[in-house]
């Protein structure tokens, strides 16, 4: 079955019109949740639907893994797809964020007294 070209185009127009207006691209009523294009209720519906189709999330993880490897082999940032630092897996921005996150984790471990000091035993 060939998709209806005009119906598809009207759906794309709907999507981009609502996205440009700062509204949920699904319902067009509310502003989207931070970092997504869907409002809270539409996002929940989408997640529930996805949970029914892929309950353990294995397909999603497989897609993410494949994308990670594809970007890594192409010399792109594994997070955003922009050109990566030579010899690294991330662009300058995401490399900085990754290091900062690792540093914060290290500081928290030291403060909590869990005894996990990298490079030291005990």
Provide tags for this entry:
mainly alpha; 2 domains; 55% helix
Question: How are the elements arranged and paired?
Answer:
Layout lengths: L4 H16 L19 H14 L4 H16 L18 H21 L10
Mean pLDDT: 83
Question: How many β-strand stretches?
Answer: 0
Instruction: Quote the beta fraction.
Output: under 5%
How many domains in all? 2
Q: Structural class of the helices, strands and pairings?
A: mainly alpha
The H-and-E topology, N to C, reads as HHHH
How does this structure look, described?
By secondary structure, this protein is mainly α. The protein has two domains: 5-53, no CATH class; 58-112, no CATH class. Helix content is 55%, strand content 0%. The chain has helices spanning 5-20, 40-53, 58-73, 92-112. It is extended and about 50 Å long. It starts with a helix and ends in a 10-residue tail after the last helix.
Give a quick precis of the structure:
This protein has 122 residues and is mainly α. 55% of the residues lie in helices and 0% in strands. It has two domains: 5-53, no CATH class; 58-112, no CATH class.
């Amino acid at each position: 079955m060939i998709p209806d070209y005009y119906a598809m185009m009207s759906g794309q127009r709907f999507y981009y019109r609502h996205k440009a207006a700062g509204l949920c691209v699904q319902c067009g009523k509310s502003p989207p949740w931070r970092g997504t294009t869907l409002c809270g209720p539409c996002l929940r519906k989408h997640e529930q639907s996805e949970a029914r189709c892929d309950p353990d999330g294995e397909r999603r993880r497989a897609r993410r893994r494949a994308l990670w490897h594809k970007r890594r082999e192409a010399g792109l940032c594994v997070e955003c797809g922009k050109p990566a630092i030579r010899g690294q897996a991330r662009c300058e921005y995401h490399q900085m964020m990754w290091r900062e996150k690792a540093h914060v984790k290290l500081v928290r471990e030291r403060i909590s007294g869990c005894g996990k000091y990298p490079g030291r035993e005990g």
